[in-house]
Amino acid sequence: MWTRYSVSIVGTVGVPGNYGGFETLAENLVRFRKEHDLDVELSVYCSSRAFESRPHEYLGAKLRFLPLNANGPQSIPYDVLSLLDAVRRRDDVIVLLGVSGALALPLVRLVSRARILTNIDGIEWKREKWRGLARMILRWSERVAVRWSHVVIADNSAIAEHVRERYRSGCEVIAYGGDHALAVEPVEDQSLDLPKEYALALCRIEPENNVSMILEAFSSMPERNLVFVGNWDKSDFGRDLRAHYHDHANIYMVDPIYDPGRLRWIRDGARAYIHGHSAGGTNPSLVEMMHFGIPVFAHACSFNRYTTEDQARYFESAAGLVAEVRGVDMTRLHEIGERMQEIAQRRYCWDQVGRAYFELVEAVCSKRWRIG
């Protein structure tokens, strides 16, 4: 079905993908190419600082290592150098994940014929953690990415609407998959003394994920257990929350879990999922949990409503979350869980995502796509 092209994936820590939405996306694009035996030469740029071993290939994809961190202040030079190296190697298509390196795109377009497909991620500059110069650079990078990419990809219809309204530009919508969360066997973690019944929250401990709101809600519901998994010790914000709520017997604040088997075990035990993200787009942890067929209580932002097709339960405050949790009967909870699973199986499977990306590669290379 697909002609032979050379494609580079830029903007991730690399593969194998151990953590992060873009890393999981890159991992599954590599797997899709191998499983479907596509006649595509695929390369992934990786941070050598994140891997102890640095093989030349992974599942048939070439790995190109750079001696910089993929996240933090070095993310911009890391992405820019990756882009320029892909240009030097004369790759046909560059899939840029995120806008960190987008400021180099005008130069790339000037000196290369490579087709650039950019997934702009969430509306990064709107996140609460960015201020001042950092926010200005991210906002500018988004604008440059939309202007100079051949195709802009959004993972959520709300982001596509943002692109159309702000930049008067078209945008492809390709979500994330979540079915990989069920692809591993559960591994019981006996070191975690968890209750028999609990709601689960899972996220980076940042203000925009409404961590404080969720903890406040469950602190007023001592009859309801909450297991909250996150990087509590990464910031003063997280450490302060842990100190404030650690005495609540119904709140279990668990350090981050990256092992897929242990994560599967803790998800299997959950009776409901609490999703506080209010920025970004189609959040990976949400679509992963939807595959488990349990009811979802999500922040009422447009991104989450699009992801769940307005079929979950929604909150905007601690009091609102309490009212939702206490106000839904068991029959309705079961129905919500079934609906979440149906949506996930219909929209958020990696085979669908991989097919959409590689069909887009074929379209831009065969000039069946109108080049911007």
From TrEMBL:
Keyword field contains Transferase: yes
Tell me which SUPFAM superfamilies the record gives: UDP-Glycosyltransferase/glycogen phosphorylase
* Annotated ranges, domain Glycosyl transferase family: 193-312
| GO MF terms held by the record | glycosyltransferase activity
Among Gene3D superfamilies, the record links this protein to: Glycogen Phosphorylase B
What Pfam families does the entry give? DUF1972 (PF09314), Glycos_transf_1 (PF00534)
Q: Which InterPro entries match?
A: DUF1972, Glyco_trans_1
Using the record for this protein, list the coiled-coil segments as residue ranges, or answer none: none
Q: Which PANTHER family match?
A: BLL6006 PROTEIN, GLYCOSYLTRANSFERASE WBBK-RELATED
Q: What is this protein called?
A: Glycosyltransferase involved in cell wall bisynthesis
